Amino acid sequence: MRTVYLNGEYIPETEARVSVFDRGFLMADGVYEVTSVLGGKLIDFDGHAVRLERSLDALEMRSPISKEDLLGVHRELVRLNDIDEGMIYLQITRGAPGDRDFVFPDPETTMPTIVLFTQNKPGLADNPAAKKGIRVISIDDIRWGRRDIKTVQLLYPSMGKMMAKKAGADDAWMIEDGFVTEGTSNNAYIVKGNKIITRALSNDILHGITRAAVLRFAREAQMEVEERNFTLEEARNADEAFVTSASTFVMPVVQIDDAVLGDGTPGRVAPRLREIYLEESMRAAV
Ligand code: PLP
Fold first, then answer.
1. How far is the CA of 186 from the centre of ligand 1 (A)?
2. DSSP code at position 178
3. How far is residue 183's CA from residue 175's CA, in Å, rounded to a whole number?
4. What integer pLDDT is reported at residue 283 of this predicted model?
5. Which helix (H) or strand (E) element contains residue 30?
6. Which of 70, 127, 196, 208 is most buried by its number of CB atoms within 10 A?
């Protein structure tokens, strides 16, 4: 039985209760973060805390907790649940005003709801999928226009994963105006020769915390990085491809729809970046 954190309390998961009037439940009016844990320590915590503030600001939501206290809660949950490898999920919603209304409640009287829980994932860093690479399908990107805000409205990404599953693939890359935006829960990259190509930051994609770190490490390792749009066609003809996220780190992609990349194995760049990312981020973990 897990211990979870709800509105200031550490309680058993079976005792954690949120109101039916919570706007997270009724309107997906909430934001979230996922931070991975390796060796009992938090990976990229600072980046996730900064992006959380940004998401809250964009939705005019007040933060119910300081960054220092948030770090304390993450660490306490790792300790209480004895997590060596896994994830911490955090969600903040606009709270439960006691009725359903499109208008935002008064923040003086309706406090945000904050929930954190752990997900134990032994072997997270040693994921066998990273050795084989994953297969993705392409689907239309029909999400809303503020994908840079990490909201809990994840129905379409969830449908995208199901479309992939039904097609016998692992994930889906989303396409808008012929260009790849991102994966259902990760940022997308292709490799051409020695060049790493990924879409530039805008409202069209989530500003991945893993993306920021991986691009920094790539540049430090003298790899060439180009932040620009790339088409599905370009991706299908790439030498390599990969995705990044807090829970998968750097994951090679070996097939896009029916196009097999290179010889159908992970290649050179993505596995090297995974190695560097894991090494550097574990060194910097808190
Ligand atoms: N893009 C989308 C749509 C995501 O949902 C995620 C993670 O959940 C990412 C990218 C990767 O972001 P991060 O590296 O911060 O986990």
1. 4
2. T
3. 9
4. 97
5. strand 30-38
6. 208
Q: How far apart are CA 168 and CA 155, in angstroms?
A: 20
Helix H segments across the chain?
23-27, 45-58, 67-80, 129-132, 155-166, 209-220, 232-236, 269-283
Reported pTM: 0.97
Strand order in the sheet with 41-42: 9-12, 3-6, 113-120, 86-93, 30-38, 41-42
Quote the ligand 1 centre to 188 CA distance (angstroms).
Answer: 10
Atom of ligand 1 nearest to the CA of 187: 10
**Pick from 245, 246, 269: nearest CA to 254:** 269
Amino acid of residue 217: F
pLDDT in tens, 182-213: 999 999 999 999 899 999 999 999 999 999 99
> Could you read off the pLDDT of 101-135 as tens digits, one per residue?
999 999 999 999 999 999 999 999 999 999 999 99
| Interior/surface letters 184-209, b for 16+ CB within 10 angstroms, e for the rest | bbbbbbbbbeeebbbbeeeebbbbbb
Ligand 1 centre distance from Cα of residue 106 (Å): 30
Residues with CB under 6 A from ligand 1: 34, 182, 185-187, 206, 208-211, 244-246
Cα–Cα distance for residue pair 166/164, rounded to 1 Å: 5
